[in-house]
């Protein structure tokens, strides 16, 4: 079985192979940190924690240990941790072979195959601990989630090793799941989506309609009769339907897993943020693949409705999502606290990854620059901050403000360690997020440039024509982007970021092409993409450039958040302050404001990144002191009113802003803040 060339551009996990990063580019350095440190570091953690040998089905000490987060067993996600590491390893092995990594992949696959039961079943927890109870708690126990990540690992393994060994294991397991859980079985669906998007990817390889139909069933069955399946499943276990592993309020437990209503009836995005993103990524896949026009229209509308609710009312300025720490998910509209002490802010790394996945699928349905803008925001900030500069430490939560309870710190591993191998596997196929190509009804090839990096794209179109596009840029630090399209006859669409406004220029043939002359050259801007036609490209020698103005700017909260904060941005990068540059900070910068009139100087670092400095910081005299008076209710005093606090001038201080993703890389005690109090001059 081989992967057909026609599906190469359908998923970033396939199309990454068409991209080669230049060695002096930003993303190359991030991916090299994974290659040099993260792959082997995570392999070592798999071994230290006994995950590595779990599929030998030996009795391990962890099986008798009490759960850290009851009632979820400590080992519940081990299957997926192993799957994600195998997938990660395969992406990097595709570029550079490593005997140690190869040996580990081979040994893990052998252990997985050896653990499979005769009927196809495969799950560490139910084979070692809860024997005889399989498929009795799809809501909480992650059987199908774990299966999904093993499927994705098997696809990557199949692609790199040209072997069906791992893939056949998963095909046998899928057959069992279809019989016992699908339309002819108990008619269930997973509490945590993942298997759906994995099955759609698998379908692209096998062309087995049953794989597609099972994924579609899991999507369309979800939430039927207001989540009746999960309700009855809990009753069958002798539990109250509102009692679950999740910490979500009981009455909303079904919303926690987006199973409170069928997707087509959901008006707002709710529940666990990672689950929501994985589910909607799969829904977008179904929209792309389903031949039924009505299905396409209805589910695409649902995707956009929920995307807009998320982006416009429930997303942080870093591109992170999930205000509520107790259930790792969404709160009510506009509820976006900065830190734990202020009421929330979770922003799990995996949720940011999910945003990028979801946006990627939507872009392949209908390219709109606003989708790529949000993907870029999440990639450079909420996602990238999840890994240290060296690739040896990671975050699970990514708040905009630190606190004593949740300092700005990274760790090598976690009890539930879904995030470390997830961010690294995504960096493995990052090239697939930069651009995609398709063929029009007239047989013409279009190339859509969504993200910017010095890189080369080379692919064979469906008509067997070879295409090569070379991009050069210092993004995200400068806005000059040049293209060499001499070896392609495609129309090229280049995203113009919304934050650029009208502050960009188009160059070709050594001259600026004025926007007023676009129409006469066949050039136009549609849905935020600059269309550069092949005929025009040929007429100017195959080379052109876009220059976007980069300068610091201030971002303000929506009034309905009831937070009068300001955040510093430059290009796609969100900035923060941390204690390493400000050793005087004692309160996690909660008493720090920033003048609206702030101006900044730019300071280029040895690696090319840019720090910002300003003299416009303000230490507020009375901001955030505890209101713990006993009898005189001092908080009623006008001096504590919102308006008077914001109008205070206090002590003006110098500030150094660093990229949010770069926090906790130089030492310090973990005090950081990206959203400062807005001070009117």
Question: Can you describe what's shown?
Answer:
With 681 residues, the chain is an alpha+beta fold. It folds into 3 domains: 5-19 and 31-58 and 77-432, Glycosyltransferase; 440-548, no CATH class; 553-679, no CATH class. A 7-stranded antiparallel sheet has the order 1-4-5-6-12-8-9, with no helix packed on it. A hairpin with an 8-residue loop joins strand 13 (552-556) and strand 14. The protein is globular and about 70 Å long. Residues 1-8 and 623-647 have low confidence and may be disordered.
CATH C-level label of the largest domain: Mainly Alpha
Number of helices: 20
Query: What oligomeric arrangement do these chains adopt?
Result: single chain
How far apart the termini lie comes to 67 Å
Low-confidence stretches: 1-8, 623-647
Largest sheet: 7 strands, antiparallel
When the domains are counted, the total is 3
């Amino acid at each position: 079985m081989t992967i057909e060339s026609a599906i190469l551009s359908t998923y970033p996990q396939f199309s990454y192979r068409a991209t080669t990063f230049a060695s002096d580019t930003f993303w190359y350095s991030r991916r090299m940190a994974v290659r040099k440190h993260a792959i082997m570091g995570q392999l070592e953690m798999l071994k230290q924690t006994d995950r590595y040998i779990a599929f030998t089905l030996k009795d391990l000490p962890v099986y008798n240990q009490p759960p850290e987060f009851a009632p979820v067993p400590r080992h519940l996600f081990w299957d997926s941790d192993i799957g994600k590491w195998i997938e990660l390893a395969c992406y990097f092995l595709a570029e550079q072979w490593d005997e140690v990594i190869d040996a580990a992949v081979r040994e893990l696959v052998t252990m997985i195959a050896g653990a499979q039961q005769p009927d196809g079943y495969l799950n560490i927890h139910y084979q070692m601990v809860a024997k005889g109870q399989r498929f009795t708690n799809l809501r909480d126990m992650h059987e199908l989630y774990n299966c999904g990540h093993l499927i994705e690992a098997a696809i990557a393994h199949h692609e790199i090793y040209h072997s069906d060994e791992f893939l056949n294991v998963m095909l046998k397991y899928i057959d069992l799941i279809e019989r016992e859980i699908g339309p002819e079985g108990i008619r269930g669906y997973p509490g945590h989506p993942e298997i759906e998007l994995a099955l759609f990817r698998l379908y692209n390889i096998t062309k087995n309609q049953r794989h597609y139909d099972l994924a579609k069933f899991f999507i369309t069955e979800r939430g039927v009769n207001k989540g009746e399946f999960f309700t009855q499943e809990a009753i069958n276990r002798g539990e109250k339907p509102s009692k679950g592993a999740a910490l979500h309020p009981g009455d909303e437990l079904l919303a926690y897993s987006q199973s409170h209503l069928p997707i087509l009836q959901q008006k707002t995005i709710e529940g666990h943020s990672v689950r929501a993103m994985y589910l909607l990524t799969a829904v977008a896949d179904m929209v792309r693949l389903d031949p039924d026009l009505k299905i396409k229209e209805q589910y695409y509308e649902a995707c956009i409705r929920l995307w807009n609710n998320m982006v416009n009312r429930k997303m942080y300025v870093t591109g992170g999502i999930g205000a509520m720490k107790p259930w790792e998910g969404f709160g009510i509209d506009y509820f976006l606290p900065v830190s734990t002490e202020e009421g929330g802010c979770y922003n799990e790394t995996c949720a940011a990854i999910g945003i990028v996945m979801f946006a990627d699928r939507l872009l392949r349905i209908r390219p709109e620059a606003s989708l790529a803008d949000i993907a870029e925001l999440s990639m450079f900030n909420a996602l990238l901050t999840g890994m240290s500069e060296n690739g040896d430490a990671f975050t699970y939560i990514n708040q905009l403000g630190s606190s004593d309870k949740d300092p700005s710190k990274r760790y090598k591993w976690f009890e539930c360690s879904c995030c470390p191998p997830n961010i690294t596997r995504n960096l493995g196929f990052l090239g697939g997020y930069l651009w995609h190509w398709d063929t029009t009804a007239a047989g013409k090839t279009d190339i859509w440039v969504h993200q910017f990096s010095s890189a080369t794209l080379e692919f064979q179109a469906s008509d067997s024509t070879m295409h090569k596009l070379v991009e050069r840029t210092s993004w995200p630090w400068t806005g000059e982007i040049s293209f060499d399209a001499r070896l392609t006859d495609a129309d090229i669409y280049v995203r113009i970021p919304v934050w650029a406004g009208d502050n960009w220029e188009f160059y070709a043939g050594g001259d600026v092409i004025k926007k007023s002359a676009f129409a006469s050259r066949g050039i136009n801007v549609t849905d935020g993409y600059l269309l550069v036609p092949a005929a025009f490209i040929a007429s100017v020698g195959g080379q052109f450039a876009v220059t976007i103005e980069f300068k610091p700017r201030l971002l303000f909260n929506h009034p309905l958040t009831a937070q009068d904060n300001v955040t510093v941005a430059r290009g796609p990068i969100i900035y923060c302050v941390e204690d390493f540059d400000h050793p005087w900070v004692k309160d996690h910068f909660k008493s720090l404001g920033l003048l609206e009139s702030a101006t900044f100087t730019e300071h280029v670092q040895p690696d090319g990144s840019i720090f910002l400095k300003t003299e416009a910081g303000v230490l507020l005299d009375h901001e955030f002191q505890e209101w713990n008076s006993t009898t005189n209710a001092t908080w009623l005093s006008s001096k504590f009113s919102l308006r008077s606090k914001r109008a205070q001038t206090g002590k003006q201080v110098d500030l150094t802003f660093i990229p949010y993703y770069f926090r906790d890389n130089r030492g310090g005690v973990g005090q950081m803040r990206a959203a400062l109090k807005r001070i009117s001059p």
